[in-house]
Each structure stands twice: as structure tokens, then as C-alpha cells.
Amino acid sequence: MSGFVEKPEPVQVPGLTHLHTGKVRDLYRNEAGDLVMVASDRMSAYDWVLPTEIPDKGRVLTQLSLWWFDLLTDLVPHHVVSTDLPAGAPADWEGRTLVCKSLNMVPVECVARGYLTGSGLVEYNETRTVCGLALPEGLSDGSELPAPIFTPATKAAVGDHDENVSYEEVARQIGAETAAMLRQTTLAVYSRARGIARERGIILADTKFEFGFEATEHGPKLVIADEVLTPDSSRFWPAASWEPGRAQPSYDKQFVRDWLTSPASGWDRRSEQPPPALPQEIVDATRAKYIEAYELLTGHTWS
Known about the structure:
CATH topology of the domain at 104-241: D-amino Acid Aminotransferase, Chain A, domain 1
CATH superfamily of the domain at 104-241: ATP-grasp fold, B domain
Low-confidence stretches: none
CATH architecture of the domain at 104-241: 2-Layer Sandwich
């Protein structure tokens, strides 16, 4: 069992139709047919959306995504139409709201890995492969891979694990041409972002993207959607302390994960009981890491 500890009631805004409440984002449709994405301050871990929010998290994710979108447009267009607040929207939607094109989304999580960790490490330790791709012997937690790899996953419903699948399975599900386009674009975007991050002292270990197709007069056009290259969708490690063979320090929700699995939380993740509220020091430390990642990557001071 997993999901929301307590699912929030959606905010009602005149002219917007509420479509979906996700782990982090609330999705609406406006009268023009565009999607309105609102990034909340909700935090998810171990397939649960926690009862405690992280202040400014939604704004950090949104502003960082916008910064990256601008740097990637020559590789792939993005889905953002406007950052203007819809009429009648609450003031706290400012800075966390995107008006986006409505796309025909591809039901695949497009994951790029340049380093071995997470579910990739688990599979490697069992089979010396990741998503069916053979890797050399001798790798450990945090090892840099010989070259970045595309390791797709099928998208899961809230509360379910995304499931790693082979490239061949993706090609079977969505067609060889689309699968090839996803792999090529995912690795191109990862390569660009990895280089930018490294210049700023950050290792982009892995990341996931979502894509959709926009209908145009010249046929369907691939567009990158959702969020991009944030601490929620990526593993960012400080390059100065990178050391294979152990878990790496990171700019993400690791403080939350570590506390939840510690004796201090009193929570058993194997049980069906929802996780407890986070203590203030964990909230503060997690917020600080998200903001540090934003400032290091963009060079802008958070305000």
C-alpha cells in the first residue's frame, strides 16, 4: 500500500478545469485547451506523498526547469506557452505555475544514466546489465559508466513503481522510429546538461525526461514536457566529493529518505502504515539542498 498520506482538495479557479492531482503537481485545463501545471511543495518518498511540505520546493522546481528549457531549445522544443498566472488564481501560485501545450504524451519514462546507482545498481549486481544492456565487470555504487546509456521505464500510477524495461520492449510498444527518436533525444539532452552541470561542480548522475508529440501542419513534433533536470527528476552529486564504492552526497531529498528509514522516525517502510510528519530540521535541510542546487546550477541567488 502507498500513495498520499492525505490527498489535498484541489483549488478551484474560475475558467480552469481540474484534471489530476499528482505526487507533486496539480494539473488543470484552461478554456483555450492548454494545460496549467502547478508545482506544489509536496514531497514524495518511498512511493508515499508525505504529510509535510518543503517550503519553496515547487517554485524551485519550476524556475530551474524554465532555466534548463531555455538552454535546450536547439535540441528539442519544450511545452511551455506562458508563465503568466491565470486570472483568479491564488497568489501562492506565483512562480510555480506553467501554462503548457496539450501534447499526446509518450507513456515512457526516458531515463539517461551516466553513473551506476539506484535501481540500475541493483540490476547490475544481479545480472551485470541495466535494462538489458551489458556493462563491464568491476563497477560499484557511483561508478562512471563507459558511456551514457538510455534505460527506459514504463510510467506507473501514483503509488506504484515505474518499471525498468528494455529498449526492445519500448520499440515494440511505441514503434521503432519513435523509440529511436526518444533514445537519441534523451542522450543528447543528458549530454548537454551533464556538461553544463560539471562546469558548475556538479555531477549529473542520471535523470529522467517525459516527451509528447505536438500536432503540427507538418506532422507530429517531439516536445519535452513536465519538469526537466531538477532535484526531483535527477541525481545531482557534488563533483568534489565523488568517490565510487559508496553512496554519494546529493542535492535532493536524501535527508528525507535517510530520516524516514532511521530509528528516529519510528516508521517501517515495509508496513502498510503511512510515514510520519517530518521534523523541522529535516524540512529545513531539504529546502536548503534544493535551493543550493538551483543557485549552483543557474548562478542566480534564490529569493
